[in-house]
Amino acid sequence: MKYRIIALIAIVSATFAACHNNTETASLGITPDAGTRYNQGQEIPVKVILPTSEKVDSIQYLIDSVRISSRKDTLATKLKTDSLKLGFKLITAKVFSEGKVNEVSTNVVLLAAKAPEVLTYVVEKTYPHDTTSYTEGLQYVDGYLYESTGEKGKSHLLKTDVANGKILQSVKLDSMYFGEGLAVIGDKIIQLTWQEKVGFIYDKVTFKQLGKFNYNWGKEGWGMCFDGTTAYNNDSSNRIFMLNKDTYQPKGFIDVYDDKGPINEINEMEYIDGKIYANIYTTDTIIVIDPKSGAVLQTVDLKNLYPLSSRPASIAADPGNNVLNGIAWDSFGKRLFITGKKWDKMFQVKFMKQ
User: Fold this and answer.
1) Biggest CA pair distance of the chain
2) pLDDT tens digits, residue range 157-171?
């Protein structure tokens, strides 16, 4: 009986000790609270909250698993954000104490440093555009427009003459595919599909299909562009993927935010002088994005570019589908072309400060 009592006391003591240790571990905390928002450039004050009995040797601070700083005391530290990409940032503190390492984490949301600059525009010229083209991708290369059009059974890859809108070359996608964004990369054309998770590779000159690849990293295939080194594509969210120009596989991403929050439904894109210009789906807005951070730098409202009252009845009858979508840049002539899905016009515009 005596030994049973001793054993019972030992079990109770061990259980109490374990609970006590768990209480201490559980009391390890960190500020700021999860989901706190900061603007790029603001310092993030981080403080580790420790059990009263804990003796700290050092604390390492990490952002998205990358070590940023360390210190040998428990005073709050300030993490710089100037060079960080925008979006959710995981902040982790590794606490080294008496040969043990405990971790505690939180997350914050990093927004653009300031509100985007508001631009205005002027129309310089107007050109015809094929009204059967449900524009999903548009790019100007070597004097011609290359266009990817959507809708199942009507999706094409086109080469057109800017001046008269005449289709010079065309290849039709199988009726199971819905064409989406495109990018001309060297002597090839890359065309995405919407929900079929497939991308096609064509010879730029002959339009012969050279191959295809699985698109499985995004929700859907939407817009695409190319900066000469890296291809970019988006997937209906605020995320833009960076793709290897030879394998068309992702090598990174940026998340797009302005100073208030994420900008979703980024659609057709064009790379212009170091920035990404993008349509916001179903709106008359084009935004200008910093491809390094994801910050929205500028925005322009094009609602008066082609008012519904000025459009042919066939286009005006379905304004929810026949929306602004299509940006192409003539880097040599410094011309910016804008159109929409099934629009009968393509506009050469110039963006400027108000």
Assistant:
1) 103
2) 999 999 999 999 999
